[in-house]
Amino acid sequence: MPSLEINQEAPHTPAGLLLAIRQIGQWGLDLLFPPRCGNCGRVDIGWCDACTALLQATPIASHTTPLNNAFTVISSGIHADILREALHNLKYLRQTQLAPLLATRLTHLFAELDWRPDFITTVPMHPKKLAKRGYNQAGLIADAFADQVNLPYLPDALIRTKETISQVGLSAQERQENMRDVFNAHSNEIQGKIMLIVDDVLTTGATLSECAEALIDGGAQAVFGMTITHASDKQ
Ligand SMILES: [Zn+2]
Fold it and tell me: Which of 98, 126, 170, 225 has the most CB atoms less than 10 A away?
Protein backbone atom coordinates (compact mmCIF):
# COMPACT_ATOMS: atom_id res chain seq x y z
CA MET A 1 0.00 0.00 0.00
CA PRO A 2 1.23 3.51 -0.68
CA SER A 3 2.33 5.46 2.34
CA LEU A 4 -0.17 7.83 3.87
CA GLU A 5 2.56 9.91 5.38
CA ILE A 6 2.61 13.41 3.98
CA ASN A 7 5.31 15.98 4.14
CA GLN A 8 5.22 17.59 7.54
CA GLU A 9 7.62 20.36 6.72
CA ALA A 10 5.97 23.74 6.85
CA PRO A 11 2.64 22.60 5.35
CA HIS A 12 1.29 26.10 6.03
CA THR A 13 3.61 27.62 3.41
CA PRO A 14 2.45 27.61 -0.23
CA ALA A 15 5.31 25.26 -1.23
CA GLY A 16 4.58 22.86 1.64
CA LEU A 17 0.87 22.88 0.81
CA LEU A 18 1.57 22.18 -2.86
CA LEU A 19 3.79 19.25 -1.89
CA ALA A 20 1.09 17.87 0.41
CA ILE A 21 -1.54 18.18 -2.35
CA ARG A 22 0.80 16.44 -4.80
CA GLN A 23 1.40 13.58 -2.39
CA ILE A 24 -2.31 13.12 -1.75
CA GLY A 25 -2.86 13.24 -5.51
CA GLN A 26 -0.24 10.53 -6.03
CA TRP A 27 -1.91 8.42 -3.35
CA GLY A 28 -5.24 8.77 -5.14
CA LEU A 29 -3.66 7.83 -8.46
CA ASP A 30 -2.05 4.77 -6.87
CA LEU A 31 -5.48 3.70 -5.62
CA LEU A 32 -7.11 4.19 -9.01
CA PHE A 33 -4.18 2.83 -11.04
CA PRO A 34 -2.17 0.63 -8.69
CA PRO A 35 1.44 -0.09 -9.66
CA ARG A 36 1.80 -3.39 -11.46
CA CYS A 37 4.55 -5.88 -12.14
CA GLY A 38 6.30 -4.80 -15.33
CA ASN A 39 6.33 -8.35 -16.64
CA CYS A 40 3.06 -10.11 -15.77
CA GLY A 41 0.87 -7.14 -14.83
CA ARG A 42 -0.27 -8.28 -11.37
CA VAL A 43 -0.57 -5.52 -8.77
CA ASP A 44 2.87 -5.13 -7.23
CA ILE A 45 5.67 -2.61 -6.83
CA GLY A 46 8.38 -3.22 -9.40
CA TRP A 47 8.65 -6.80 -10.62
CA CYS A 48 6.71 -9.40 -8.62
CA ASP A 49 8.62 -12.20 -6.85
CA ALA A 50 7.54 -14.83 -9.39
CA CYS A 51 8.79 -12.80 -12.38
CA THR A 52 12.01 -11.90 -10.58
CA ALA A 53 12.60 -15.61 -9.86
CA LEU A 54 11.79 -16.45 -13.48
CA LEU A 55 14.35 -13.90 -14.68
CA GLN A 56 16.96 -15.30 -12.31
CA ALA A 57 16.26 -18.84 -13.54
CA THR A 58 16.45 -17.93 -17.25
CA PRO A 59 19.30 -20.05 -18.64
CA ILE A 60 22.36 -18.39 -20.09
CA ALA A 61 22.80 -19.05 -23.80
CA SER A 62 26.27 -17.78 -24.62
CA HIS A 63 26.53 -16.26 -28.07
CA THR A 64 29.72 -14.90 -29.62
CA THR A 65 29.66 -12.23 -32.31
CA PRO A 66 32.95 -11.38 -33.98
CA LEU A 67 32.99 -7.76 -35.12
CA ASN A 68 35.57 -5.66 -36.96
CA ASN A 69 39.24 -5.53 -35.98
CA ALA A 70 39.23 -8.74 -33.94
CA PHE A 71 36.67 -7.22 -31.55
CA THR A 72 34.51 -9.93 -30.02
CA VAL A 73 31.20 -9.49 -28.23
CA ILE A 74 29.67 -12.18 -26.03
CA SER A 75 25.96 -12.07 -25.17
CA SER A 76 23.98 -13.99 -22.56
CA GLY A 77 20.87 -14.75 -24.62
CA ILE A 78 18.54 -13.87 -27.47
CA HIS A 79 16.69 -10.54 -27.33
CA ALA A 80 13.26 -12.11 -26.71
CA ASP A 81 10.77 -13.06 -24.01
CA ILE A 82 11.65 -12.23 -20.41
CA LEU A 83 15.13 -10.84 -21.20
CA ARG A 84 13.65 -8.36 -23.68
CA GLU A 85 10.95 -7.42 -21.16
CA ALA A 86 13.54 -6.93 -18.41
CA LEU A 87 15.73 -4.70 -20.59
CA HIS A 88 12.70 -2.72 -21.73
CA ASN A 89 11.55 -2.26 -18.12
CA LEU A 90 15.03 -1.19 -17.07
CA LYS A 91 15.39 1.29 -19.92
CA TYR A 92 11.95 2.85 -20.13
CA LEU A 93 10.08 2.04 -16.90
CA ARG A 94 12.77 2.87 -14.31
CA GLN A 95 12.94 -0.72 -13.05
CA THR A 96 16.56 -0.17 -12.06
CA GLN A 97 16.53 -3.02 -9.53
CA LEU A 98 16.76 -5.33 -12.55
CA ALA A 99 20.28 -4.12 -13.45
CA PRO A 100 22.20 -6.27 -10.90
CA LEU A 101 20.03 -9.30 -11.72
CA LEU A 102 20.88 -8.92 -15.40
CA ALA A 103 24.54 -8.23 -14.61
CA THR A 104 24.73 -11.62 -12.83
CA ARG A 105 24.32 -13.23 -16.25
CA LEU A 106 27.48 -11.50 -17.46
CA THR A 107 29.29 -12.48 -14.27
CA HIS A 108 28.53 -16.17 -14.92
CA LEU A 109 29.68 -15.84 -18.53
CA PHE A 110 32.81 -13.94 -17.54
CA ALA A 111 33.89 -16.72 -15.15
CA GLU A 112 34.18 -19.04 -18.16
CA LEU A 113 36.35 -16.65 -20.20
CA ASP A 114 40.07 -15.99 -20.15
CA TRP A 115 39.58 -12.24 -20.63
CA ARG A 116 41.61 -10.14 -18.21
CA PRO A 117 40.33 -6.57 -18.60
CA ASP A 118 41.81 -3.70 -16.60
CA PHE A 119 38.58 -1.71 -16.72
CA ILE A 120 34.87 -2.18 -17.32
CA THR A 121 33.23 0.62 -19.24
CA THR A 122 29.94 1.25 -21.04
CA VAL A 123 28.37 3.00 -24.00
CA PRO A 124 27.82 6.60 -22.96
CA MET A 125 24.56 8.41 -23.60
CA HIS A 126 24.47 11.92 -24.96
CA PRO A 127 24.26 14.34 -21.99
CA LYS A 128 20.89 15.67 -23.19
CA LYS A 129 19.40 12.18 -23.32
CA LEU A 130 20.97 11.31 -19.97
CA ALA A 131 19.45 14.40 -18.38
CA LYS A 132 16.03 13.41 -19.74
CA ARG A 133 16.11 9.74 -18.63
CA GLY A 134 18.13 10.37 -15.49
CA TYR A 135 20.28 7.24 -15.82
CA ASN A 136 22.14 5.18 -18.38
CA GLN A 137 20.60 1.70 -18.33
CA ALA A 138 23.71 0.10 -19.84
CA GLY A 139 25.82 1.92 -17.28
CA LEU A 140 23.76 0.48 -14.43
CA ILE A 141 24.39 -3.05 -15.74
CA ALA A 142 28.11 -2.33 -16.30
CA ASP A 143 28.49 -0.84 -12.82
CA ALA A 144 26.78 -3.80 -11.13
CA PHE A 145 28.81 -6.27 -13.20
CA ALA A 146 32.11 -4.52 -12.34
CA ASP A 147 31.11 -4.74 -8.70
CA GLN A 148 30.32 -8.44 -8.96
CA VAL A 149 33.63 -9.34 -10.67
CA ASN A 150 35.60 -6.92 -8.53
CA LEU A 151 37.02 -4.84 -11.38
CA PRO A 152 37.16 -1.05 -11.61
CA TYR A 153 34.32 0.62 -13.50
CA LEU A 154 35.36 3.53 -15.68
CA PRO A 155 32.10 5.11 -16.88
CA ASP A 156 33.79 8.04 -18.61
CA ALA A 157 36.32 6.11 -20.70
CA LEU A 158 34.27 7.18 -23.72
CA ILE A 159 32.50 10.43 -24.43
CA ARG A 160 29.69 10.87 -26.87
CA THR A 161 30.43 13.83 -29.10
CA LYS A 162 27.31 13.74 -31.24
CA GLU A 163 23.62 13.30 -30.56
CA THR A 164 22.35 10.51 -32.81
CA ILE A 165 18.90 9.59 -34.00
CA SER A 166 17.41 6.32 -32.70
CA GLN A 167 18.85 3.24 -34.40
CA VAL A 168 15.44 1.55 -34.37
CA GLY A 169 14.22 0.84 -37.88
CA LEU A 170 17.55 1.65 -39.56
CA SER A 171 19.33 -0.83 -41.83
CA ALA A 172 22.79 -2.16 -40.89
CA GLN A 173 24.43 0.33 -43.25
CA GLU A 174 22.34 3.25 -41.97
CA ARG A 175 23.23 2.30 -38.40
CA GLN A 176 26.91 2.34 -39.27
CA GLU A 177 26.55 5.78 -40.89
CA ASN A 178 24.54 7.07 -37.93
CA MET A 179 27.23 6.00 -35.44
CA ARG A 180 30.26 7.22 -37.40
CA ASP A 181 32.67 9.34 -35.30
CA VAL A 182 30.18 9.57 -32.44
CA PHE A 183 32.63 8.56 -29.70
CA ASN A 184 35.95 9.79 -28.41
CA ALA A 185 38.08 8.21 -25.72
CA HIS A 186 39.42 9.91 -22.62
CA SER A 187 42.95 8.70 -23.18
CA ASN A 188 44.74 9.30 -19.87
CA GLU A 189 43.59 6.26 -17.95
CA ILE A 190 43.24 3.80 -20.81
CA GLN A 191 46.78 3.90 -22.25
CA GLY A 192 47.90 0.31 -22.84
CA LYS A 193 44.87 -1.01 -20.94
CA ILE A 194 42.50 -3.84 -21.78
CA MET A 195 38.92 -2.59 -21.82
CA LEU A 196 35.63 -4.46 -21.56
CA ILE A 197 32.59 -2.56 -22.83
CA VAL A 198 29.20 -3.58 -21.43
CA ASP A 199 25.98 -2.75 -23.26
CA ASP A 200 22.38 -3.94 -22.97
CA VAL A 201 21.59 -5.19 -26.48
CA LEU A 202 23.74 -6.07 -29.47
CA THR A 203 21.98 -5.52 -32.77
CA THR A 204 24.28 -4.92 -35.76
CA GLY A 205 27.22 -4.09 -33.54
CA ALA A 206 27.60 -0.64 -35.15
CA THR A 207 27.61 1.15 -31.78
CA LEU A 208 29.99 -1.23 -30.03
CA SER A 209 32.34 -1.31 -33.04
CA GLU A 210 32.57 2.48 -32.97
CA CYS A 211 33.21 2.42 -29.21
CA ALA A 212 35.96 -0.20 -29.61
CA GLU A 213 37.57 1.80 -32.40
CA ALA A 214 37.53 5.00 -30.33
CA LEU A 215 39.15 3.17 -27.37
CA ILE A 216 41.88 1.68 -29.57
CA ASP A 217 42.46 5.09 -31.22
CA GLY A 218 42.66 6.55 -27.72
CA GLY A 219 45.46 4.18 -26.73
CA ALA A 220 43.77 1.05 -25.33
CA GLN A 221 45.67 -2.17 -25.93
CA ALA A 222 42.64 -4.39 -26.55
CA VAL A 223 38.86 -4.21 -26.27
CA PHE A 224 36.22 -6.83 -25.58
CA GLY A 225 32.44 -6.50 -25.39
CA MET A 226 29.59 -8.10 -23.48
CA THR A 227 25.85 -7.58 -23.80
CA ILE A 228 22.85 -9.10 -22.04
CA THR A 229 21.12 -9.96 -25.31
CA HIS A 230 21.80 -10.11 -29.01
CA ALA A 231 19.35 -9.42 -31.78
CA SER A 232 21.96 -9.74 -34.52
CA ASP A 233 20.16 -12.54 -36.34
CA LYS A 234 17.21 -10.25 -37.02
CA GLN A 235 19.23 -7.75 -39.01
ZN1 LIG B 1 5.14 -10.48 -12.37
Answer: 98
Any domain includes 134: yes
How far does the centroid of ligand 1 lie from the alpha carbon of residue 179, in Å? 36
Domain residues for 88? 50-234
| CA 40/CA 48 separation, integer angstroms | 8
Range list of β-strands (E), 6-154: 63-66, 72-75, 119-122
Phi, then psi, of 21 in degrees rounded to 5? -60, -40
The DSSP 8-state label assigned to residue 60 in this structure reads: P
- 7 assigned to some structural domain: no
pTM of the model: 0.83
40 CA distance to ligand 1 middle (Å): 4
Which residues have a Cβ under 8 Å from the Cβ of 11 and sit 6 or more positions away?
A: 17, 19, 20
Walking along the chain (235 residues) 10 residues at a time, the average pLDDT comes out as 48 75 76 86 91 97 87 96 96 95 98 96 92 95 98 94 78 80 88 97 92 94 97 61
Structural domain tally of the chain? 1
